[in-house]
Design goal:
By secondary structure, this protein is mainly alpha-helical. The chain folds into three domains: about 1-70, 434 Repressor (Amino-terminal Domain); about 80-190, no CATH class; about 190-300. The protein is built from 21 helices and two strands. The chain has helices at about 5-20, 25-30, 35-45, 50-60, 75-90, 105-120, 120-125, 130-140, 150-170, 170-190, 190-210, 210-225, 230-250, 255-270, 285-300, 305-310, 320-340, 340-355, 355-360, 365-375, 380-390; strands at about 275-280, 280-285. It has a two-stranded antiparallel sheet. Strand 1 (about 275-280) and strand 2 (about 280-285) form a beta hairpin.
Length: about 400
């Protein structure tokens, strides 16, 4: 049984409906659910079944886990999609004919999937990304010369979006293959910014393998190869690489290198001037501040106070992508747990879940902190037990 009450689920559905300026009648029509059912759900009188919840979520264009936090349809959709993703990229260097959609339709589909990635809505990505990826590969092979670079950049974005689904759900071998596809496409685009993006994502393979020292070397080589930061986009690309290098240096226990890369990222964020999405990556002053916490946590328990100082009296704005906000609260919870501030750690985990339920549920540090809290923190025990069950910590 869900730990969310029917009233909580109903309140979330009503809030999403109003945000989309839909009436209850319009939501009923769009979701093919009766008006009486929609009304009863929003009032908290009825708890929606999985089928009804998914129909309503599709009509509202949100992932079901935003409406009911323990919804497991995401995992089902993702695991069903993984074999199709593997098949789609098995022969990426082989020409198989024209894509099934026009370049404009393909670009629009990829843009939508990228928006879902930034919002950590992996359950929405999973059913559509294998076909998008297959079409992007076909387009690279068949695009006229004038369109070839654009086609290759589309493939970089599609492969990155597919990688988010694989990596966040533990399919690290598939993730590594998707990253190699990104690098192949970036080279075909002959675009240094696309290559910088591929290098940024490649850091995941070093995190997954715990190969932090070699990962730091690879990131520093990517920074050296990145375009000069003479435009906002190129400055953001270089700044994002510095953020990644700072975190991987922290995990390599190289505090000096971590601080140096953070300082470069901060300087570039001031040059960029405002937070934004550049080449599919969030970068700006807020992102650098999030990475202040991330680096401190990467350095280990002895640096918990540093993480807490970095987060003191500050929280990421709702304009920051949901996945990044969720990551901030997960890492803050880890530092709070180390510092013996268990009540605050549990509050941070709940903030992470509110920002991005799928990302929070799949993050190994969420489970680690939840287990620790359940062992040593007894207040609010019922809510904590529900949360621990939700993340699979028990």
């Amino acid at each position: 049984m869900s730990s969310d009450s029917p009233h909580e689920i109903g309140r979330r559905i009503a809030a999403c409906r109003r945000a989309r300026r839909l009436t209850q009648t319009a939501l009923a029509e769009a979701s093919h659910v009766s008006y009486a059912m929609v009304r009863a759900i929003e009032r908290g009188v009825r708890r929606p079944s999985d089928e009804v919840l998914e129909a309503v979520a599709d009509a509202l264009e949100v992932d079901p886990s935003r409406l009911r936090t323990d919804h497991v349809g995401t995992e089902r959709r993702v695991h069903q999609a993984l074999p199709a993703l593997s098949e789609a990229i098995a022969g990426y260097d082989v020409t198989l004919g024209a894509p099934t959609r026009s370049p404009g339709e393909l670009a629009e589909g990829i843009r939508t999937a990228v928006d879902w990635r930034l919002a950590a809505q992996y359950g929405r990505i999973a059913p559509v990304i294998p076909a998008l990826l297959g079409d992007a590969i076909r387009y690279v092979h068949t695009a006229p010369g004038a369109e070839h670079s654009d086609a290759a950049r589309m493939l970089v974005s599609a492969a990155r979006t597919a990688d988010a689904v694989a990596y966040k759900h533990g399919a690290h071998d598939l993730s590594a293959r998707l990253i190699e596809l990104m690098r192949w496409a970036a080279d075909r685009a002959a675009d240094p910014l696309a290559q910088a993006t591929a290098s940024y994502v490649r850091a995941e393979t070093f995190f997954a393998a715990r190969a932090h020292a070699v990962g730091l070397v690879a990131m520093e080589q990517a920074i050296d190869s990145a375009p000069p930061p003479d435009r906002r986009t190129s400055a953001a690309a270089r700044g994002a690489l510095h953020m990644r290098a700072a975190v991987i240096a922290g995990r390599a226990q190289d505090a000096a290198a971590a601080d140096t890369h953070l300082a470069h990222a901060r300087q570039l964020s001031e040059q960029v001037g405002r937070e934004g999405i550049y080449l599919g990556t969030a970068f700006g002053p807020e992102s650098v501040r999030v990475h202040d916490v991330s680096v401190a946590v990467s350095l280990g328990p002895d640096h918990a106070d540093r993480a807490l100082r970095a987060a003191a009296e500050w929280a990421p704005s709702v304009g920051l992508p949901a996945e990044r906000r969720s990551g901030f609260y997960i890492e803050l919870a880890r530092a709070q747990d180390w510092a013996g501030r268990q009540a605050e750690a549990f509050t941070s985990l709940r903030m992470a879940r509110a920002a991005a339920p799928q990302h929070t549920r799949g993050h190994p540090w969420t489970r680690e902190v939840a287990r620790n809290l359940r062992r040593f923190h007894r207040s609010d025990a019922e809510s904590l037990t529900h949360f621990a069950h939700w993340v699979g910590a028990v």
